[in-house]
Specification:
By secondary structure, this protein is of the alpha/beta class. The chain contains eight helices and 13 strands. The strands form three sheets. It has a seven-stranded mixed beta sheet, with helices on one face. It has a four-stranded mixed beta sheet with strand order 7-8-10-11, covered by helices on one side. Strands 1-2 form a two-stranded antiparallel ribbon. It comes from Lactuca saligna.
Amino acid sequence: MMMGERSLCWVVTLFGVLSAAVYSYKCDLYEGSWVYDDSYPMYDSTKCPHIRKEYDCIKYGRPDLTYLKFRWQPTHCILPRFDAEEFLRKMSGKKIMYVGDSVSLNQWQSMVCLLHAALPSEANIHEETINSTTTVTYEDYGVSISMFLSHYLVDITQEKIGRVLKLDSITDGDVWKENDVLIFNTWLWWYRRGEKQPWDYVETGTKILKDMDRMVAFREALTTWANWINSDVDTVKTRLFFQGVSPSHYNGADWNEPGVTNCGKEALPISGSTYNGGWPKAEMVVEQVLSGVKKPVSLLNITRLSQLRKDGHPSSYNAFRGMDCTHWCVAGVPDTWNQLLSAALG
């Protein structure tokens, strides 16, 4: 090979390496900001029959609707708009299940509303609830989308001493692993105490304790979940996702409004990509545990983009009139979580 040809070959190779690096850098869908887009929301929530009274902000009187008009814009790439028919076609014959707490339910309801809005009224759709699972089946596509309520992922059992949270036990996994796509979530209930705490004791290894460090317990439960994946789940058949920690907005100092104690008067997202509140410790634990899973699990990394949406919560616009800065209005932020899920599914 002549000198000029070698130089050209080296330049082409270097260009290819640099292009690959730039392409990889540009395709982080989770880095970006919220931009106003008058074509949003993607559906009219007043016409969706699936929304629970905790999340149905318009029905319960929210007067400002600007929060519906924001689209997530990644810094260096495009997040495709959700296309319901395309999603159902690519998922044809598949079973999808969200597994987790009420934040998972938030996302599930967003998904079924996105699909409901795009399908004709005569579409063959069937819904049923059995025990902890609600399933909507789109018969024309052979697609089912389920919500399995599990606050901790690990088991709570009734024993002689009372209700025991077992950090090293997952018995519902046999139901979960029959699905083709699983989206897991847990965090919201780990610091519940008093009447809201659904267990009396916690079992860790051979010990039965009245209580323990909740973050340590959270890590142990996630490790049990990770071990279950490594030993029991066929990832050739089943795609796995873990939803990042969904933030709440009760401390105005996190968005440069010291003294504010809730999201009740928030009408706009945080401008830009920076959130003062820092990264939740629970999210660090999630990412650490996921890094040790031997099989492929994708992080649906919704934490930072949701931190920027102090305006997206129901606040007092829910059936209970309580101040809710933890869950999300539907339509709203969870629609973007599902856009990201759809993009990740290819």
